[in-house]
Structures are given as C-alpha cells and as structure tokens.
Design brief:
Keywords: Signal. It comes from Streptomyces synnematoformans. This is L,D-transpeptidase. The protein is of the alpha+beta class. It has two domains: 29 residues; 139 residues, L,D-transpeptidase catalytic domain-like. The chain is built from four helices and nine strands; from the N terminus they run αααββββββββαβ. A five-stranded mixed beta sheet has the order 3-2-1-9-4, with helices on one face. A four-stranded mixed beta sheet has the order 5-6-7-8, covered by helices on one side. β6 and β7 form a beta hairpin.
C-alpha cells in the first residue's frame, strides 16, 4: 500500500508538469496578454499596402488605450505593449470631442442612441457641447450623418467592431482623441 502512495504522487507531479508546460506554451505563443484576456479583439493582419493608412498616429499616448483619430475617422485598440490589436473605420458624430486624453466613464449593452436609433455596445468617454460622446454600433447597421443639424454624440462602427471595442474598453480604459 505504501508503494501506491508514491505512484499517485508521481502521477500527480507528472500531471502538474504537463499542465505547467502547456500553460507556458500558451503564454509564449499569445501575441498580447490583453488579446488572451479579451477574445475577439484582435484584427486580421493588414496587407502591406494598407499599413501606412492603418498606422497608429504619432503622439497618441502609450500603453493600453483606445485611439480615435478625428480626421481619419478611425479607431485603434492598443495593447499594453503598444501593439495595435485592431483598427477600423467609424462614422463620426455631429459633435466632435476636442483632442485630448479621456477615460471610459460608462458603458451600456443596449440603449436608444441620441438620434433615436437602437444601439449596442455603448462606450461613453466624454461630453462635448452639452452632448455625451461615445462609441456605439446601431442594431440596424445605420450610421447617422455627421453633419446633421441635431447634436449627436455617437461615433458609430460596424456591429463586429463595436463588439470588439466593448470587450476591450472597460470603465477606466484610456481614450486618446487626436486630430
């Protein structure tokens, strides 16, 4: 009976070794800790022709953040190591936030947008001209005219991009707005 205890202990040690090895491999092969923790965030690799257009703007901060470029109408989800995990085009709101440093202040899974359209994956980060500004995706895929006479603060994306942003941008995550 005493020998069987050593056998079980040996099997347990071997099993722990295998688990530790597999965990090490998973960690070493993952591109970014954030991508591991938030599946569905990373974008497919861009072609070489698109790299310049997709390049992260200069002076857009460092570390974990969302970067929103007003002139490019583009958002970047940036990991802790400054790697771009995802980038995509957006339709701006009629009210632009001033360039600067913000943080996600609140989120809502699904609400009615300021234009009356049902939206999901709402990520709010500031207020400008008396209008709340944040990212969202319309359930029907619509994107409001940014030159509308009515003030709207919804920066719209596709539903897939909105879902990725939702997974990435929790309350407190930095949002950098650049020209």
């Amino acid at each position: 009976m005493a020998g069987s205890g050593k056998f079980v202990a040996g099997l347990t040690a071997a099993a722990l070794g295998v688990v530790a090895f597999l965990a090490y491999q998973a960690n070493a092969n993952a591109p970014d800790s954030l991508a591991r923790e938030r599946p569905g965030v990373a974008s497919p690799e861009p072609s070489k022709a698109k790299e310049k257009e997709l390049a992260l703007p200069a002076r857009s901060g460092s570390g974990l953040r969302v970067v929103y470029a007003l002139e490019n109408r583009r958002v970047w989800l940036v990991g802790e190591d400054d790697s771009v995990l995802r980038t995509y085009k957006v339709t701006p709101s009629s009210v632009d936030p001033p360039p600067g440093r913000y943080a996600v202040t609140s989120r809502a899974k699904q609400v009615t947008g300021s234009d009356g359209v049902p939206v999901e994956h709402v990520v709010i980060f500031t207020e400008s001209e008396g209008t709340v500004v944040g990212f969202s995706a319309a359930l029907d895929g619509s994107r409001p005219d940014p030159d509308a006479k009515e003030k709207t603060g919804g920066v719209r994306s596709s539903r897939a991009d909105g879902k990725a942003l939702w997974r990435f941008a929790t309350v407190g995550v930095e949002v950098r707005v650049v020209k």
